[in-house]
Each structure stands twice: as C-alpha cells, then as structure tokens.
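pinging the channel bc i need a second pair of eyes. not urgent but kinda urgent?? the chain im working w is below, pasted from the shared doc
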Amino acid sequence: DGLQRAVYPLSKGLYWAAQAVIALMVLLTVTDVFLRYLFNRPIVGSYELTELMMAFLVFASISYTMVVKGHVCVDLVVSRLPSRFRAVVECMINLLAFFLFGLVAWRNFLQAGILWKRNDISHELAIPIGPFLYFIALGVASLCLVILVHFLQSLAQAVKK
C-alpha cells in the first residue's frame, strides 16, 4: 500500500508531463505546416524535435498506462482459471515483466552514460541525446515500480486464504 501511494503519483506526474509534451508537439506541427505552406519557411529541425518529444511522450506515459491497465491484455485462457491460480499466473507474469523491464531500464541507463561521455548530439539541431536516454531509463524504471506493485498485489491475492 505504501509503495503504491508513492509510485502511482509519480506515474501520474509523468503522465501530465506527457500531456504537456503532446500539446507542444501539436503546436509545433501546426506552426510548421502553417509556415511551410504560407511563407515557404518551415521550422528548422521540427522533425527532429518531434522525434525527441515522441521518445519523451512514450516513456513518460507508459507507467501510467500500466496503472490504469490501459495496455492490451489477452486473457482468453487465464480468465477461465480459478481465481487463486489466476493470481499465481499473474504473479509469475509480473515478476518476469519486472525483471525484463528492469534489464531494459538498466541498459538504457548505461547507454545514456556512453552517449553522454561521447557528447552524442542530434543531427540537425545538435541537441544532446544522452538526457533523452536517461529519461527513457527513468520512464521504464517507473514502469518497473508499477509492475512491482502489481506483483505484490497478485502475490497477496495468491496467498490469501
């Protein structure tokens, strides 16, 4: 319960940051199209900015989507199982997902450090890439925490008498 009270507001905050970024993406795209067709002067680097904002958008909202169970879930077989056995299966799935996404977060964090040290920058606008990978690692780590909460909930359901 305490972990859930800490993790869910973090996910919600990242979700609201993603909402702000999508609004900026829309504004950038509309302005770019407007300037391109009316004045033949597109915004330099708008495509690149949109790509970087998309990375932020996806990984800022992934954990909140998991909180509200907004991901696609095919439970054709699992839904027919007894509730305790279903909880055990969900427990195993959540544990596996926790370790796999933990690996993804860890590798993104390491890769971000490499890009930071090499001073990798974007092609057109020379924006450093490292901070975006650090943010991706943060978004996936937030997802790991949500999965951990779901694991503990399904574990409690599985051992419930």
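so The chain has a mean pLDDT of 92. and Helices lie at 2-39, 46-67, 83-118, 130-159. — does that match what u expected or am i reading it wrong
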